[in-house]
Amino acid sequence: MGGAKLRRGAAALALVAALGMTACGSDDDDGGGGGGASNGATSGEPIKIAVIADVTSQTGVAYPGIPPMIERAAEEVNAAGGIDGRPIEITECDLQNLPDQAVRCARQAVEDGVAAALVQVAFGAAKVPPIFEEAGIPYLPAFAFEAADMQSEVSYPMVPGVLTQIAASYLAGQHCENPVLLTFESPSLDYTKELSSMGFAAAGKEPAKVVAAPLDTKDWAPIAAEVTADDPDCVVPYINEALTLAFYPALQQTGFDGKLVGYQGGVYTEKTLNEFPDLLEGALAVDMSYPFDHEQWDDYNETMAGLEEEYPAFTSSLVKGSYLNFLAVVDAARRAAEDGKDVTGETMLETFASTTDIDTGGLLAPVDTSTEWDVERFPRMFNTSVLVEEIKDGQVTLIEDGEFQDLGDEIAAVANQ
Amino acid sequence: MEEVVQFALLGLGLGALYSLAAHGLMIIYRGSGVLNFAQGAIGMVAAYLCWDLAFEQGLPWALAVVVGVAASAALGVLTHVLVMRPLRRASSLARIVATLGVLILLQGLVVLQYGSDVIPVRSTLPTDIISLGGDLTITVDRVILVSLAGLLAVGLWWLYRFTPFGLGTSAVAENQLVASTLGWSPDRIAILNWALGSALAGVAAILVSPIVQLQAGTMTTLVIAALAAALIGGFRSFPIVFAAALAIGIAQTEVTRFVDLPGLGQSVPFAVIVAVMILRGQSLPTRDFFLQRLPAVGTGTVRPGLVVFGVAVGAVAMTVVPVVWQDALTITLGFALVLLSIVVLTGYAGQISLAQFAIAGLGAWIAARLDATLDVPFLLAVLIGVAAALPIGVLFALPAVRARGLSLAVVTLGLGTAIELMVFNSPSLSGGVLGTDVHVPSLFGLSLDPIVHPGRYGLFALAVFALAALAVANLRRGRTGRRMLAMRTNERAAAALGINVPAMKAYAFGLSASVAALGGIVLAYRNDTIIFSEFTNFISIETVAWAVIGGVGFVFGPVLGATLAPSALGTEIGNTLFSNVTEYVVPLSGLILILFLIQNEAGLVKQNIDQLHHLARKLRIPWPAPTGAGATYDGGDARIERAAPKRLELAGVTVRFGGVVAVDDLSLAVDPGRIVGLIGPNGAGKTTAIDAVTGFVPAAEGSITIDDEDVTRMSAARRARSGASRSFQSLELFEDMTVLDNLRTASDPFDRASYVSDLVRPVTPPLPPPVVAAIQEFQLGDDLDRLASDLPYGRRRLVAIARAVATRPSVLLLDEPAAGLGETESAELARLVRRLADEWGIGILLVEHDMAFVMSVCDELVVLDFGRTIASGPPAAVREDPSVIAAYLGDGDDDAVPAAAGTNDREDR
């Protein structure tokens, strides 16, 4: 509570001292911290949900669209009556792409008394779980790739990045004879290779040749030359959009005419699709949810109208993942309230632990969070279903009848070997 | 084989990028002496502007390029006029930090305008593939880039070799003062070079942006790698830099392709840097090199009351504030330890290192890996991590023996980057994506779990910092600190006093590495899983900036400077007050950094001390005057102890500089108590002879003995300890130190144990009787607590001689001691020198142009002309020697070598 007093005092000081800055500052009217106030449809003590994200960044990619997107989503929920009549209140913390901010933001969320936290963190993901474990608060990582996100007892990833990495190689194993996997040198290199090997093994294939580009690669021409040296029929990019934008021109220059296969966010994003339509023709990708222009997202797009133009990277998988996590939290909160419980971190954990079909409005396959996955390395991989997409004539279309494919059994069979 | 050639061709593209970046760096360095860390940022602005105009606004590409390049040129000029010019008298360290401020400001503004997302840039150069036979190919755009880089190298070579502008730049780079007397304006030259260098940065960035794409930090990291090429070219030769850049690009590409070791390829430029410096550098600066000025340094005085009060306040704060503030304080203290290591290394020892955070990470890595793999208890792991960092620091000192200033900064940057790439980003060494899981830290059974007990962990960090700070303050006040400061100010003079400069550097690097390791451990153990890739070397550069802001010469400076670190106290305050405008904080912080440096480059601590002094004076509160550390002089025992009698003998000594014989077959002897004068016209080789005797230049032939001990191959420091001491023509006092500390440094006993004992209990030995006698003899009693730089010229000359005498030499070599003195002062000095020989028993070799002085004191003269001995013997005889007269005047004028009063008395000695 001493912290709350300090914050109120500091807020008063900030109001005076920061007037000059805010006058020429952001025109983001949603502001920082405290969106989704009560209205006529809701009343009572708000249910707080923390949004922790790289809202600003000097050196990496930032996702400034996440907090306003979640706030709009919260407003929509509140307009429809909130959670059992109680409003949702969003608290926000900017990670600034700094590793130690993850600790700070997690601690802040605990101090704020949130019922759950939506976390998108590029640096310092491993620092978050211990704090939420200690506090007994569930957190939902936007693109769970870190081992800690897959093992923490309070982590409930709706969009496990680990799955897409395994599934991407599974897909490549199904469709390619001579694939090459491109990733980059980092502490996660061996981990990436391991996930890829699992995917290929699940498809009954040997692991692909791996080309690891040095961190901070400036000229991608040598990397592209190395990737295409053995005339692969497929290239499987395990790199982010920033690196893809630099790699694809170099790949085009080699005259590569094979297929790009991987996961949405690695193979393609909206930006890369616009820039390299020819290169991406025929590409295959796994996705946790529907393509960004699919009708399933119509309601979302209507709610978020205007934000896409205002915020970069709005259609990225991390933004989408944050929204899907929010829907999961709302569903769990409603269930807790329906059971007559006060919606707190503790009751949210209980609810997640007892729910077999978390509903995200059909954007994901129903997620059973009551049972850990039977793979020792990734027990928190509750969602093992993906969609498979193909890029045709510049459009992303679903294949495999547009149905979610549950790869849980195939992957578990090789992961436990 | 074909694949090797193919990748060599591919490496040419990268090499061209490096060449373009390096040339811009060189131009600015040559024109203004500034290593511009903002070079990449300036270029980046041009690239963004060009892209915006050409692809967003629809302007013709050529016009967009012109506007972009003009903008970068203008930025360069503004940087010089608004930032560098006000800092022209500041230390090189402050100027480097100022460019960092410009980098932060520009990067922040670009992100504000365009975001941090990557922007794809379509190539406007053709990208068709050219087949070279077999499977060998290269694309047209790479050929164009390499060709452009080559043409640029040739063009710049011609510009700087044959044009007035180029010659003027070279003149100013050699000697600003002389160049300005010849009509060259250093400021105008600097402006033009900044404009040209920045324009080149813009050209480079625009050309390479289709390859690297547009993102705020990309060009900056490119520039760091380009430093390797610039260094190989000595920041002078454009063609060599071009060739080196291509070679580095090819080597990097080949290593990346064919060697499966993460990070090795990216480390190639830095390995090259280290190799070049080790092979090329010099162990001691030449006669004309002065270590560039460094910011002010504190006295290391510990006021126990203040320390207790400060620690108590810190402990209370750590206990009562909310958890997020506890974290911020702990992070501040961890970084303060890293900055404290910079106080030792840069503030005290004058060595610029841009690798301290990487070393901090290494210390954490050692401790954490021991903890995780061998279950070593926390305290033991910490001690081992700190101890193991010491030899690592000593390894870093190896390049420092032969590199200094800017070169040393670049070498350490390279080493630190290599550590980051090859250790911290290595999956096998760092624990991979899982990081390194460590046990919960505890101390004597008390849990310091930073998650559960963040306050306790913070108190631990506070205690560690307090102890380390006390040790560093002790170091400052002790013998070791004096030696470090002496080395920092003037390596040549330090060696002349018997200080082993390489060993001192090794000690400074080793100790600072241990302190940095302590900081790294404190920072790392705040988490139960340590991710070492967070120890980025770019933060090493920033730590230097924070240290300068806080006060790089003051023990409390790190506490203030560390508040600026990410997620430290400053961030927390900013988050609390300005949570809505975070994106403005970064460019504002860059601006504030620049403005602060301009206003006070000595740092916050010095500024605060000065302000408190001022306030105390206004309020008439007594304030202890700053004195030299350990500077009590109470008169003491002023006995003159006769020097150990030793004879100096030179036999056939020859010194060559390339094809020039500076000293030719010189033979002479100096007996105890006798004064031998070495005279001759300007350029005769007199100072070179002294340099040869004292070990500052090597003798190509001949031998030098001190009392039958052959010192010909000994280092300068060892010869000084053998009993030969000297003064310098240019005085070369330790300007940052008081007169007393200058004398103490000369007279402190050499005691290896003091390297350790000074950290705990610095002992200031009583002044030896000869030093007390020298103080009285030279009448320096009233000047002891004054900084050497504050004395008038005549007094400084006396301090220089007194310092040489304070080493208790058997042989004293005086190089023009009377230069610039008036007749009366000169006569007094002559009497003093005579007494040193007669009463102290010191043998003196005297170089002097003042013939009255020479004739009045010398027992014997040796006359050099063009390096050869043309006469020797008693002064009266030498004075009449026709060859001597001819050497001075060339026409046999009998009055060319004047007599002095009492000259004839010297013939009998």
Task: Describe the 3D structure.
Chain A is an alpha/beta fold and 417 residues long. Chain A folds into two domains: 2-7 and 26-160 and 296-354, Response regulator (Rossmann fold); 162-287 and 385-415, Rossmann fold (3-Layer(aba) Sandwich). Chain A has helices at residues 2-17, 19-23, 66-79, 99-112, 128-135, 161-175, 189-202, 221-227, 241-253, 270-275, 277-280, 298-303, 307-310, 317-338, 345-354, 408-415, and strands at residues 47-53, 88-94, 116-119, 139-141, 179-184, 209-213, 234-237, 259-263, 284-287, 385-392, 395-398, 405-406. Chain A starts with a helix and ends with a helix. In chain A, 62% of the residues are buried. Chain B is an alpha/beta fold and 909 residues long. Chain B has three domains: 2-260, ABC transporter involved in vitamin B12 uptake, BtuC, CATH 1.10.3470; 325-547, no CATH class; 648-908, P-loop containing nucleotide triphosphate hydrolases (Rossmann fold), CATH 3.40.50. In chain B, the strands form five sheets. A six-stranded mixed β-sheet of chain B has the order 12-13-14-9-15-16, sandwiched between helices. The chains are: A alpha/beta (417), B alpha/beta (909). At the A-B interface, α1, α4, α5, α7 and α8 of A face α1, α4, α8, α9 and α10 of B.
Which topology of the largest domain in chain B does CATH recognise? Rossmann fold
Distance between the termini of chain A: 50 Å
Strand order of the largest sheet of chain B: 12-13-14-9-15-16
Largest sheet of chain B: 6 strands, mixed
- Please identify which CATH superfamily of the largest domain in chain A we are dealing with: Response regulator
Instruction: Give helix and strand order of chain A, one letter per element, not per position.
Output: HHEHEHEHEHEHEHEHEHHEHHHHEEEH
Query: How many domains is the backbone of chain A divided into?
Result: 2
Counting copies of identical and different chains, the oligomeric state is heterodimer
How many helices of chain B? The count is: 36
Q: How many H/I helical runs of chain A?
A: 16
Task: Report the structural category of chain A.
Answer: alpha/beta
What percentage of the residues of chain A does DSSP assign to strands (E)? Answer: 5-15%
Question: Would you tell me the overall average pLDDT of chain A?
Answer: 86
What CATH architecture of the largest domain in chain B would you give?
A: 3-Layer(aba) Sandwich
Task: Choose one word for the global shape of chain A.
Answer: globular
For the record, the CATH architecture of the largest domain in chain A stands as 3-Layer(aba) Sandwich
CATH class of the largest domain in chain B: Alpha Beta
Number of discrete domains of chain B:
3
CATH topology of the largest domain in chain A: Rossmann fold
| Rg of Cα set of chain B | 30 Å
